[in-house]
What we know:
This protein has helices at residues 2-15, 24-32, 135-146, 267-274, 297-313; strands at 44-49, 89-93, 96-99, 102-103, 110-118, 121-129, 151-152, 157-160, 164-168, 172-177, 182-188, 191-195, 202-204, 207-218, 223-233, 238-239, 241-247, 252-256, 263-265, 280-285, 290-294. It is of the alpha+beta class.
Amino acid sequence: MKHIVLIILLCVVFIAPAQQPRLPVVDAYLEETGGVVAGERPDSVWVSFLEKTYGRTGLLLNFPEVDDRGTKELIPFGFRLSEWSEIPLVPVHDNLCQSGRLPLFNRSMFSSVRYMLCDSTVYGVSLLGGEHWDRARFIARLKAYFKYADMESDTVSLFSDCDYLVKVGRNEVEAYALLHYPGVAVSYPGVKLYGWNAPQRIDIDAHHVDLKFYVQETKENNLQIAFRCHVSDANGAERTVKEVCLSNGRVRVACQVQSEERVFLMPNQVKDLVEDNPVHLLIVSDNGQTITCQMSYAQFMSLKMTYEYFRWNVTNYKVKYKNW
Length: 324
């Protein structure tokens, strides 16, 4: 019996070191949490409303324009169409759809409107200039409402606050209700990404900056706040980002991006960032070139909504293993 026990102990001694190397699946997981695997395709993509996180509030918002000029005819943001609605709808993808071009009775400023809907609920509109369309005059009115423009040029001007995002083109105006803008959930094997990013990109110093915040959730209910930052020049060529810094005058969060697409933020850092607005952005490329700008209110709201989703779900045991 003593010989058998001795043989077992010797086997354990020699086998134990062989168990030390990490399983390949662990290395693969650690690598994927630092960057998206090339060629990886999501299992599914769907959209939903942030307000479903807290329960429907029934909040309705009118178009953010101080004068009428036909805008009072618009269906308010957050209004849900019934199944008997006579407005023609065109599917976009999944549960997103848009209406056909509908004429306005008052065509002095705008001639027609197209509604953007999620689950039959209006979250955005597209207006075409009418007989007396005056871009400069309309922008002046928006400046009186929003106080300042996030970005302004001869072709595209952007305005935003905690409720609205308005994009003014040459002859078309797009407006979105940020509190009703649908969030996007992308499902990868074992991981889901939740984000609320209105269609706004930063154009500065002949560069296009695409900054998106989201929450990554694993099936073990492990939630992490992260962002992606892509920079391209005027010709569309991608620039390699080395460092991204977010600051609001009270707190400064510097992130080394290196080659990863996903950069994770600590919850306490995000909490400090969303407590004060505006948030300033500093991007450093691999060639040492820097881009500095102030994040628009729409992007600030995206960051805040991401933190709110994290805060409400990180300790919610009921979402654990949900829909997996």
